[in-house]
Design goal:
Elements: E1 2-8, E2 11-25, E3 28-39, H1 42-60, E4 65-79, E5 82-96, H2 102-111, E6 116-123, H3 128-152, E7 156-165, E8 173-174, E9 196-210
Length: 211
């Protein structure tokens, strides 16, 4: 986006927007896993759910794996207008800070047959270095655009007057792979290696247009 602003007390201005990005290989992963059980009543459903979750606990206690949250759902199931039993579910959000254990963790989780398993979603523990690089590229992009318009107007690009951070139109993009627990498989063949995480920066700049 580029504008030539009206002349001010200091002369005409050129306003440009710049975008930059940088990628770093992910050093963290997020997983969502759900367990579910049914029973004639709530007590039976919750008891059976507890057995399923307990079978997964050894995998969840491996160093480098953190359970960030747990949510329990217990509700009555219906068949037409009549109750047919109860279902109990527990959703767990996991953070893997040691990606070397991810394959072992997925194998263990698939083996206990959860109701659903989604991930990994790749993230960075500290995206600040990638963000600084993206910001530098965004400013360079904005300046290059402004220089081009200054030349097109027969002038020169003067000093920077203002810079503001443009609103993000989406979160930093992490390339994702998904593994679903439908059979006891070896996830080694799924190629779940850490992927690049892209961090973006957007800025709007205002420059002086010199004759």
């Amino acid at each position: 986006m580029t504008d030539t602003a009206p002349a001010s007390a200091d002369g005409p201005e050129i306003v440009t927007a710049g975008t930059g990005w940088d990628e770093q290989v992910a050093d963290r992963a997020e997983l969502d896993v759900s367990f579910s059980a049914t029973g004639r009543d709530r007590a039976t459903a919750v008891r059976d759910l507890g057995k399923r979750v307990a079978a997964a606990e050894p995998a969840l206690s491996v160093p480098g794996v953190t359970v960030r949250s747990r949510r329990l759902w217990v509700h009555t199931e219906w068949r037409g207008n009549r109750p047919s039993g109860c279902r109990a579910s527990e959703d767990l959000a996991l953070l893997v800070t040691d990606v070397a254990v991810l394959e072992e963790l997925l194998n263990a989780l698939v083996a206990v047959e959860p109701a659903a398993l989604n991930g990994p979603r790749w993230t960075l523990e500290d995206p600040s270095a990638a963000l600084r690089s993206a910001q530098q590229r965004a400013v360079a992009d904005a300046r290059e655009r402004a220089e081009g318009y200054a030349a097109a107007l027969g002038g020169l690009l003067g000093p920077l007057r203002r810079l503001s951070e443009a609103p993000e139109h989406g979160a930093p993009v992490a390339y994702r792979m998904a593994a679903r627990a439908e059979a006891a498989v070896d996830v080694h063949d799924l190629g779940l290696e850490p992927e690049p995480v892209r961090v973006t920066a957007h800025c709007t700049t205002t420059w002086t247009l010199l004759p």
